[in-house]
Each structure stands twice: as structure tokens, then as C-alpha cells.
Amino acid sequence: MSASSTRLVGKMSKKAVDRREYRALVGASLPHVIRNNSENEHYTRLLESLDSKPNPTPAEKELAELLTVLIENFEEQHYALKRAMPREGLTELTTRCASSAVSIIPMRLPSAS
Fold it and tell me: What is the pLDDT of residues 40-74, one digit of tens each?
């Protein structure tokens, strides 16, 4: 691999992206900020199809990276778990267990007879 076909990105180097191929991929998928669940599902399916390719091109890898950022951004904003103190977490778990049909069965130790 020659220096002209490699570029440095952070601490990693990777093959240069074919601009025409990348432009065609972006033109076909038109990635943008995800605003609703439908768009999120669409881009997730597209990312899965790129990830399932046995030998993706550098352009496909670049598009997959862009889609990953967009999806993660949407999901962090819409599905992020709220921070909870340990006591609140335990309270939630015990509430759910108490309200479910399955109850906690006390452990019985064998008698010492």
C-alpha cells in the first residue's frame, strides 16, 4: 500500500475512500439527521445491510460509520436510560417483582433432624 492510497484518521490508517463511489452511496441513501423512529429503522436496516457485506469497500465502511453516528445520536436522545441511584433501581426491581404473577419463593433449608 503506497502512501498516496493511505490516509491517517486519528490513530488508525485506512485506505482512501473512492470519492465517486462514496458520492453515489450518499446520493442513493441521502443520510441526514434522524428525526423519528421510521427514519431510525430505515437507517438501521441500511447499516445492517452494509455490515453484512463480506468485503465492504472503504466507501461502504465510511457510509456505515456515518450511519452509526446518526443512529447513535438519535437513540441517545430518545432511548437513553435515566440515571438512577442504587436504591431507586432496587425499588423499581422489587416493585416489578411484586406486581408480577411470579413471586419470590423463600429458600427452605433442610431441617437439622
Answer: 999 999 999 999 999 999 999 999 999 999 999 99
Does any domain span residue 3?
no
Composition of the chain by helix, strand, coil, percent to 5: 60, 5, 35
Residue numbers of the domain that contains 52: 12-98
**Distances from the Cα of 25 to the Cα of 51, 60, 66, 75, 89, angstroms:** 14, 8, 12, 23, 44
Domain total for the chain?
A: 1
What pLDDT was estimated at residue 112?
64
The answer for residues whose C-beta is within 8 angstroms of residue 21's C-beta and 6 or more apart is 57, 59
